[in-house]
Design brief:
mainly alpha
């Protein structure tokens, strides 16, 4: 049975090789858990950002659009940062002629910083995939070198037939760590690059959302500057 053979190789291996197997196995479990979590997260984020972007695109007033965003979403957090900054600037009593320019420029910086902060928060968990993609093959190579070294240790003490048996066992251990290292590294590399692409698309969508938010702020400032028509006459 293959499963029994793999278990036999693991149990017969030296403690260093067993440690490499266990570490690579732990890395693989964490990587796949992270992959599934990120797949679900990006799917949810993509849906939310699309819906909230459409909400801003169809909105006519800033306050109404802000209240209709998905509660607790990444777009609501972004809009909250801009909304708080806008209210704070409104209370400073800025000169009428310069108010719009100052407010829009300040909001542009605030929203851009928030987009970057959200992108950094999304990238942070991906660093583990990058570490696994780079470290797993090296760990497998270390197991290979150690297995070969361990195989040749008994050459001066045992017969030729025994030496061949030890070499075969050591090479089996060594090649096993190489294979496991690649099985960890290849998916980690593929999903790392895939998630980087998704994260870049998300950052661009958030930047577009921020532009729509600024557009609503500009309309709000224009309404404040335009006097109400006098219907009393």
């Amino acid at each position: 049975m293959p499963d029994i053979a793999y278990l036999h190789i693991f149990l017969r291996a030296s403690w260093i090789i067993q440690g490499v197997y266990l570490l690579l196995g732990t890395m693989s479990v964490i990587c796949w858990g992270l992959v599934f979590a990120k797949l679900i997260q990006f799917r949810r984020l993509s849906k939310t950002v699309t819906e909230d972007t459409e909400t801003l695109r169809e909105a006519r007033e800033l306050q109404a659009a802000f209240l209709n965003l998905s509660p607790g979403s990444i777009t609501q957090t972004l809009a909250q940062a801009g909304h708080d900054e806008y209210l704070e600037l409104q209370g400073l009593g800025l000169p009428q002629g310069e108010r719009a320019q100052i407010v829009l420029e300040s909001l542009r910086h605030t929203l851009r910083d928030e987009v970057r902060r959200q992108a950094d928060a999304g990238f942070r968990p991906l660093t583990f995939l990058g570490v696994c993609a780079n470290a797993a093959p090296l760990m497998g190579l270390f197991g290979t070198v150690w297995g070969i070294f361990h195989s040749f240790q008994g050459f001066s003490e045992l017969s030729r037939a025994a030496n061949l048996m030890i070499v075969g066992q050591g090479l089996g251990e060594a090649l096993g760590t190489t294979i496991v290292g690649l099985l960890v590294a290849i998916p980690a590399t593929l999903f790392y690059n895939y998630f980087l692409s998704r994260l870049g698309a998300l950052e661009r969508n958030l930047a577009h959302f921020a532009q729509l938010f600024l557009k609503l702020v500009k309309h709000d400032l224009h309404r404040q500057r335009t006097p109400e028509p006098d219907h009393s006459r």
